[in-house]
Amino acid sequence: MVLSLNRTLKSIKRKSYLTENRTDKIFMLVFLIIFGLCFVPFVLKSRQNQKNDIPVSVSNKVYPENNNILYTVEETPLLKFKRDNNSVLKPENLKSDAALLYNVDTDTVLFSKNSDKICFPASITKIMTAYIAVKYIPLETQFTVGTELSLLQPDSSVADLCQGNVITLEDLLYALLLPSGNDAAYTIAVNVARHVSGNADLNDTQAVEFFCSLMNEEAEKSGTKNTNFCDPDGYHNTFHYTTAEDMLRIALHTDDFPVLAQIAAVPYRKTTIVSGQAFYWSNGNCLVVNDNQYFLPFATGFKTGFTDEAGYCMVATATNNNQRFIAVTLNSPSLAGRYTDAANLFYSVIAPDKIIIDTPQVPPSS
349: left (phi > 0), else alpha (psi -120 to 50), else beta? Predict the structure, then answer.
């Protein structure tokens, strides 16, 4: 009887042990499955990033004091441009603080100087302003110039629009891109913002803020990583900035709407707007004005800019032998320096023998 009881107890213990052991194994298996499901996506993402050569980055922007030029220590995944470092130009040959030359057809950066350095864009901002306008509004749409003109800052460049003028978007774009009218920029901004937002009651300031959100959203779509827009005209703001590489991306983005390049190539525009006023606007880009000393026969556009803080800036386009080129120059110390730098960038691939390089004067030996 005792022996039979012992055997029964041993059998019960053995079954209990096997049950506990099986439970532990099931628990461990479930744990491994859950852990794997959580961990595998990170492994796959890491491998994908390595495959695409996308660097991991941490944002740490440094903003200036006393209106100094912005710099950044941010490392971000940028669009990968092919680069050709065989340019006959050297960085020291250019006056501009940052510069870039790009061959659109071969997708190649042919020259680069501080192209990822953050600078102020001044009126080349208006390239994005024009893009947003044609993206959302038909060219024949009529706008009435209103109280948004009160937002103009002192010493702004203007197209001489007046409150009450009725003008089509097409003429507004000429007013924006040729004489670089800040009045045209604000008229575009508030009207486009009210249309896109569906809120006609937005006041002028609210409308401009909404429009700038559209600008920044579109800039991000174009691939920019170090650009922020705070106004539609490029008037100086410490937190309104870009880089040469980012302006190249924005310029490439305008290929979506060829009409912008067509307008930017026109040296002069004589027009009578809907409300009857006549205007004559000259293109501020001297490269496309054939009676100007800086005229280049192969230049096709696009936009210039200047503020005391930004220096002389430019996004320039050119065509030669069925190839398209884009040059970006930022923070040149002079008007002549801006145009000479743009010309030299184009000359470096179109006519190297015409490159203009300042050489230091060596005093004669005594």
Answer: alpha
Name residue, tokens 């067509």.
Answer: 262
Axis-axis angle for helices 204-221, 182-197 (nearest 10): 90
Q: In what order do the strands lie in the sheet with 323-332?
A: 82-83, 108-113, 98-103, 323-332, 311-320, 299-307
CA–centroid distance for 195 within its chain: 24
Alpha-carbon Rg for the chain in angstroms: 30
Which residue type sits at 241?
Y
d(CA 48, CA 65): 40
Mode of pairing for the β-strands spanning 82-83 and 98-103:
unpaired
Which DSSP letter does residue 226 get? S
3-state secondary structure of 190: helix
What the block records as the tokens of 124 is 């080349």
Please identify which residue in the block is written with the tokens 């200047």. Answer: 306
Q: Which tokens sit at 88?
A: 């006959």
In this predicted model, what pLDDT tens digit does every residue of 114-157 receive, in sequence order?
999 999 999 999 999 999 999 999 999 999 999 999 999 988 99
Single pTM value for the model: 0.76
Whole-Å CA distances, 164 to 4, 147, 195, 242: 110, 9, 19, 34
